[in-house]
Amino acid sequence: MTDLRYALRSLGKTPGFVTIAVVALGVGLGLSTTMFAVLDAVVHPYVAFRNPDQLYRVNWWFGRRNPMSSAELYRYIRNESHSFEGVIPVGWDRGILERNGQSQEVQIIRVTPRWFALMGVAPRLGRGFSASDGEDVAVVGNDAWKRLFGARARLEGATLTIGGRPIAVVGVLPRGATGGVLMPMSGAVESSSVALRVMPTVRLRAGVTRAQAEVELKQLAQRLTERFAARDAPFAFEMYPIVDRREELRDIHKAMVGSALAVLIIACVNLAHLMMTRGLAKRREFALRMALGASRAAVVRQMFTECAIITLGGATLGALVAFWGADILQNRMPREVSWIGLVQPQLSWRVFALGGLAAAASAILFGLVPAVRVAFGVNLDDPLKDDAGTTTGRVRYRYNPLVVAEVGLALVLMMGGGLLLRTVHGLQREREETNEETLWQGYVFTRQTGDTPSGYDNSRPRPSRSAILSIVSATPGVRGVALESTRGVRGGVITGEMTQDSNRTFTMREYPVVSPSYFEVRGLPILKGRDFEPGDAAGSRVAIVDALAAQRLYPGEEAVGRMVKLGGPAVDAPWVRIVGIVRSPRLLQGDARYAPQPMVWVAMTDTTSTPKLVIRTASPDPKIAATFQTRLHDLPGVGVSLWPWNYSRKAELASRGFLAKVFVGMGAVALGLAALGLYGVLAYAVSRRMREFAVRVALGAEPKALLKMVLHDGFVMLLGGIGVGAFAALAASRLLDSVLIAVLPSDVTSLVLCEVVLIAAGLAAALGPARRAARANPMDILRAV
Question: Is residue 614 within 8 Å of 522, Cβ to Cβ?
């Protein structure tokens, strides 16, 4: 208790020291605890469903000979399989939600009443669907309920307006069940020939493994292949787990936790610096106490008591930071972030246990060690040495390894933030150049009257393209409409005209088939040649390539007028003539993560089936899309599925933007702590060498020379940290590989920019001690003697 009272009294005399130490340690502990919560949510995810490891979605692939609809394939799996406890249909749709005078797009999940029982989830408010429910009821997810209706605990009067229709909310799902809006699916999918766009959700029987179920699905697919003689494009089924635990996503979580631990290490190193500096500053006091009979153990205990008090304050502040960080991740994290596998963290007992362990380790490793070093380095004649007129050397402060480690760790975190910022910048630039906010895409299909909007019927004739285009074009607010479809590339390779030295090719799995107005609607300008014309759609084989494809096929030559083969050199594939070159899209939807891929577009003919609508509106107002969607629905037997062109890009931008904020924040904290550590080391070194600097001035040294001397010491430590941190940053940035787009993990530009910022911040931190050294006055030293 005596040590405690003395420690409190001693710390009270140095509030600046206490504030810096507590804030630095508290921020490090708080960020680490928040990331521990993310890691705990990954290892022990909260899932509202019963036995989620038994739940899977089934997808399929088939060729152009397939005569079965998706609902027929669902019924085939339901009736022929024996590995599943239950098989239910699930469909996805999108609608325009109007609330408080504003419109927004929402995801609609179409399910049958059996969905709740099979998934093992019950609404926390209200009820699920029943057989008597029509299409004007909905069950919403917990997040959507909070966003739309706040924290109210009753369903009375809860109504949504989707597509101009009032939808009564009859239930609210618990947290973690779904983020969208559930609406009933027509029961016709279970028994009739009506085909709905569905994907089966299955639950494995007890004792059946995923491998056994996949073997059975492979056998079912083989039967369909033999039945329809589709060996050139066989059927295939694949199972996807409901709870996505992809291994590549674990790298993201490792990077987030590692970044927080790096900040904690930097904060602890600063704590060690501060405690060492404080102990050395009090060495005269310690020497006098030992001369009066105190043991070295008592001195260690006294210093460790002060460190324990600081650690307790830092842990308290860290708990507040963790609560604040968890609240941000739970309630303010963009919904699209779940696309990259992040889960909502909870501050469980495991998280606080890890946080407490980190605090205890910080106190012991970075508090006790400096205390022991100071206590056993004090001699009884230290007070006499302090009064001597000698000077201290600068070598012991020049290459401080702890400062080098701090700078290196800060560079690693800044590199991660820089890579993500470049990814976000690329996505944002692509959206701005093509104005994707006003671009929509969708399909028009035939459905039977009374079915859900997600239903279609292959047996009925499709509406004419001219009727569809005229209705959409006549809608107020629509600036243009085009059609797009895709065809497979034979052999997966596009081939240019043969030359004597090589075959000019590039890989491409499928090529778009588009209408003449496509490029104007997309916002891709024609650089050379011409656009498609109405005569091209009559059957002439012409193509337009982007600038990258033109350079790949005909480097240094004129590509317009040359031929290109829609297949490999050795396969029987059609040749088309290039009539124009367009600007390359910077980032493509699909697999082009690192760089834009060469593209070829072919003119659409009347034989092209199932085209996709591409619509450009005058503004991003969803009401415009809702208007022409309603007009298309007025056509007899026509259904419409519509969504924004940048839907996936928007999710990518939101998720990467959130990660960028996390890593940039971590990097900024690490940068500040590293600068603080450099400042502390140099400030203490200058205070110990003020007598030396005064003697140098007395002997004729210029203040600029002293300024350069201290800045040189700081610059040497910065260069050492950057040299070590550059290699560590290039290695650690590979953990972010799965979320980078159009940027390599070893991006040199990001590394150089981070190094420049780090050097600037380090020199700014060193400038204060350097200016103090330059102001050394010999008269002050003489007065102090």
Answer: yes
pTM of the model: 0.69
How far apart are the two ends of the chain, measured CA to CA in Å? 38
- Matching residue, tokens 């450099």: 678
Say which residue the tokens 């004597």 belong to: 500
Distance CA 211, CA 213 (A): 5
Provide DSSP, 721-750: HHHHHHHHHHHHGGGGGGG-SS--TT-HHH
Up-side HSE of residue 476: CA atoms within 13 Å toward CB?
Answer: 1
Backbone angles phi, psi at 78, to 5 degrees: -60, -40
- Per-residue b or e along 221-250, where b marks 16 or more CB atoms closer than 10 Å to that residue's CB: beebbeebebeeeebebebeebeeeeeebb
Closest to 716 in 3D by CA, of 415, 395, 414, 393: 395
Phi, psi of 527, deg, nearest 5: -90, -40
**pLDDT 10s digits, 109-164:** 888 888 899 988 888 888 888 888 877 888 988 878 887 887 777 888 888 888 77
Cα–Cα distance between 454 and 108 in angstroms, integer? Answer: 10
Indicate the residue type of 550: A
Q: Which residues pair with 58 in a beta bridge?
A: 239
Task: For residue range 645-672, list pLDDT tens digits in order.
Answer: 766 666 667 777 888 888 888 888 888 8
- Is 229 within 8 Å of 118 (Cβ atoms)? no
Residue keyed to tokens 């059927």: 235
Residue 744 tokens, joined: 């390599």
Q: Is 574 helix (H, G, I), strand (E, B) or coil?
A: coil
Q: Is the pLDDT of residue 69 over 80?
A: no
Distance separating alpha carbons of residues 160 and 163, to the nearest angstrom:
10
Token pair of 436, please?
A: 């994707």
Helix (H, G, I), strand (E, B) or coil at 410: helix
